[in-house]
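ok so i was messing around last nite and threw this chain in just to see what happens. nothing serious, just curious
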Amino acid sequence: MSQLRLHQVGKRFGAVQAVIDATLEVQAGEFVSLLGPSGSGKTTTLMMIAGFEQPTTGSIELAGRQVEQVPPNQREIGMVFQNYALFPHLSIAANIAFPLKVRGRPRAETEAAVQGALALVGLEEMAARRPAQLSGGQQQRVALARALVYQPRLLLLDEPLSALDKNLREQMQIELRRIHRQVGITTLYVTHDQSEAMTLSDRIVVFNRGRIEQVGAPLEVYARPATRFAAGFIGDSNILDGLMADAATQLRLADGTLLRAEVPLRANAAGAASLLVRPEDIQLGEPPAQANALPLRVKSVLNMGPHVLLLGEHGGGELRVRAPASAEVLRSEGSRITAWWLPEKSWPIPPA
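result:
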């Protein structure tokens, strides 16, 4: 069942087109991340869904009801902001109770709902404290509890973990997944962090310059990006440019090296084409028969603990390789080595 539907939604601020023809359908219970760089249109899209911005064009439906003219407080949407937006003079329990009080819920019902929300986020013992007495992660949990306490149809989160340090951010990702599975609420999550989107999402919506470039499951978007932007923005990548050779699955680099894929290239009218290969899919050493191979001169090797990131030069440009750490690889700067990968690890993307 569709819980949210956007149809050709656009937003203009003066001469700036912030969102262009956004079309998206979100099913009940899904966790969907809107992913893109700053200024790509993802937060503006979220604000239009919440009702804080009015679309210039298009329509927004929530549970089958068109809501462009419905005030934010009547859309049954929970919202978690980047800065938490907690009331500093109220206790944690009072902060969480606020949405129920403004809706006129009975006192006994409100108290029971607040206790349930506190238990959901693991803050039962913090009910009497003020926000300033809590850590950033605990404040984020309060904001989440407040957004969920009145059981909205849809939960919107706008970069909620960006102010937290790395370890706390990872802990909160685990908590968000647990809470989402427990509650089952349809969730839209705005982030510019690719790993965050990959970890949390059922599907990812890739935004770029106001447009939706791709919608898909995390592994699908990572392994089979639909656009050149998606290929470069999500994860670490090598994009190899050249010309389509005699076969539709073969790419010829500037130095004449022939590379193969298992599916046809996406060449333009001039025959230009490109392949994506992820650094972790590349091996070092003697290549097997039928593998794609590139001789490299090693420029640098970065020790990253259990693996290394090797940057090498070849006749057609540069190549990044993520390989297991070993004494031999760590000492390889300045040496020559062969990098190889199987054709099924090459994914065609549109040329520049």
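not much to say yet. The longest helix spans residues 166-183.
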